[in-house]
């Protein structure tokens, strides 16, 4: 693998992104380092300093000072700066996409797609910067005017997961910036290099526009650094993407100080395949949904719920589709499936396989680990399919690997009930050409998820539609529709331009 960005020989330090870096306050011998290994080939690709608590505090202080200036910059002007960032990401799309693919292990196409999402959210945010609309209301009192305004919140903490190492940051940061907030990003400890690359890519834009130091900040580390953000009353909003376990911990800490949180957590996504489905559409959608990013998307298809009359047909078609899958380096575009993120993920794949067998599950497509030439990292596994039952504890959990559960239904009500009968509520889909079935699935009596699709799969969301889910998925919405409101505070204003002081509700008060 050739170096795709000039890789530093010394461990890289996080901090703020316009040139000033915070150096650790501890003696360098005590400084913790994250070693980032590529799951593609097992190579060590970066050594990154972990932020100390002292680094963190200095970053927050700088961010707070920057907020005082940034909030005064007119929103369309902030949008113009985000537009320039979009141009930078267009310029470095191939380099950053390749780095995402190499550090995280998703296919090059998906790595490039992730950078395209950054570009798309930049474009979206530019338009949004001129549309931070408040309402005006008719007052019940004469010569009074009521309106609401949206003001920035302050410091926004962004905790992100390994599987979308850069896009999730941009969904939050680009919108937060046009809203007038400043951001502190705590990326996954499994993908620190892509985060540093993003800060470098926008650095010139920040410098060229004299953006104050501290508008875009980065702190590195694992759970500790995430907990600092969650507990810190100086951080107005914590937007956290990751497992439900992490989300519950963050929610508790942030609620304990009555702060705001925006949670994007695990999914357990199903596709219903009706007897009225076009299987030529359904099969590729299921396969991409189940094996794309090696089953490591929050929207990965984990369950398919098939009408009993076409069950065997669907099973056989899936078997032959899976037989065509080629597994190998994510950077080689002839392969469909890359590696899992690390050995811990491989372990969870193995544990789950055993539990499926113990529960009575039957593999339609057999699991397995790959070794030998090309698989030296030890992170490559075979995508598999198991016949299972929805209520089994193993099916109720999100296991972040390419295991697909095959379930059967008789009536549509039964299918929708199975689809909804899991703790998570992120993405869902139905394949049917029957209008009544499709509409019922989308109705109040249908899917209980944040995303419900017809004749497309569960993964592959677009910028523009609010993204997020219900129940243990956390309830947050990002990257479109009116999601910008989460990054602002609403202020209601009543203005009296008359010569009397009437009270609301007709209350009289005489002096
Ligand atoms: P993870 O929960 O292990 O880690 C996510 C982030 O949280 C990391 O930055 C980690 O350092 C931090 N963290 C961990 N524990 C913390 C704590 N107690 N307090 C504060 N921060 C903490 O998740 P992961 O393995 O990186 O990612 C996979 C998970 O993320 C899956 O469950 C997936 O469904 C979910 N995910 C959800 C979405 C979504 O939009 N709903 C998107 C991507 C990933």
From TrEMBL:
Residues 30-492 form the Aldehyde dehydrogenase domain. The active site is at residue 264. Residues 1-20 are annotated as: Disordered. InterPro entries: Ald_DH/histidinol_DH, Ald_DH_C, Ald_DH_CS_GLU, Ald_DH_N, Aldehyde_DH_dom, ALDH7A1-like. Keywords: NAD, Oxidoreductase. It is an enzyme of class 1 (oxidoreductase). It comes from the Bacteria. GO terms for molecular function: aldehyde dehydrogenase (NAD+) activity. Its EC number is 1.2.1.3. Pfam families: Aldedh. Belongs to the aldehyde dehydrogenase family. Homotetramer. PANTHER family: ALPHA-AMINOADIPIC SEMIALDEHYDE DEHYDROGENASE (PTHR43521). This is aldehyde dehydrogenase (NAD(+)). It comes from Spirosoma validum. The lineage of its organism: Bacteria, Pseudomonadati, Bacteroidota, Cytophagia, Cytophagales.
